[in-house]
């Protein structure tokens, strides 16, 4: 009978050791997922602009950034200004389009921001649009990442 109890204790110690190891692995993986923002991992795409989503964006070394913003607010908007900070080739360039554009409810508008000369390689554009929804002047931000090829 004495040997039977030792076998049970040995099995319990085995399970406890591996159980704690699995708990530590789960904590490390959860910490890595928390610290690494998945939206920064991708190389192409736009994030942000929840009420004014960006679609069909394209980086071009001659034209800068051309994109479409879709108005999903349900109201006609008066766009006051578009602005962007472009990070490319180790430098940051700025571009803006202060022209007022009216965007009807559930429609889209094409915008082109030209920061000047962009070089081949990865580009990050931090975009800001200021618009009036009829009651208030609001601001929306987003980020587009892409690559310019030669």
Q: Explain this structure to me?
A:
The chain has 150 residues and is of the alpha+beta class. Strands 1, 4, 5, 6, 8 and 9 form a 6-stranded antiparallel β-sheet that branches. Strands 2-3-7 form a 3-stranded antiparallel β-sheet, with no helix packed on it. It is elongated. The termini are far apart. It has 1 helix and 9 strands; from the N terminus they run αβββββββββ. The longest helix has 34 residues. The protein folds into 2 domains: 35 residues; 108 residues, ApaG domain (Immunoglobulin-like), CATH 2.60.40.1470.
| Class per helix and strand makeup | alpha+beta
Helix content: 10-25%
Shape category: elongated
Assigned CATH architecture of the largest domain: Sandwich
Q: What is the succession of H and E elements?
A: HEEEEEEEEE
From the N-terminal CA to the C-terminal CA, the straight-line distance is: 79 Å
Number of helices: 1
**Major sheet: size, sense and barrel closure?**
6 strands, antiparallel
**How many structural domains?**
2
Q: Strand-residue fraction? A: over 45%
List low-pLDDT spans: none
Could you state the CATH homologous superfamily of the largest domain?
ApaG domain
What's the Cα radius of gyration? 26 Å
CATH class of the largest domain: Mainly Beta
The CATH topology of the largest domain corresponds to Immunoglobulin-like
Taking all residues together, what is the mean pLDDT?
A: 81
- The total count of strands amounts to 9
């Amino acid at each position: 009978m004495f040997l039977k109890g030792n076998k049970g204790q040995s099995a319990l110690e085995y399970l406890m050791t591996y159980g704690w190891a699995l708990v530590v692995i789960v904590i490390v993986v959860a910490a890595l997922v928390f610290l690494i923002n998945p939206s920064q991992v991708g190389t192409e795409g736009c994030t942000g602009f929840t009420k004014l989503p960006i679609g069909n964006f394209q980086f071009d070394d001659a034209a800068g950034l051309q994109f479409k913003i879709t108005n999903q607010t349900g109201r006609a908007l008066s766009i006051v200004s578009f602005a962007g900070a472009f990070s490319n080739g180790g430098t940051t360039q700025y571009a803006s389009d202060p022209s007022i554009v009216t965007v009807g409810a559930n429609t889209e508008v094409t915008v082109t921001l030209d920061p000047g000369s962009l070089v081949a390689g990865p580009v990050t554009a931090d975009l800001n649009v200021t618009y009036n929804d009829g009651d208030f002047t609001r601001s929306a931000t987003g980020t587009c990442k892409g690559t310019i090829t030669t």
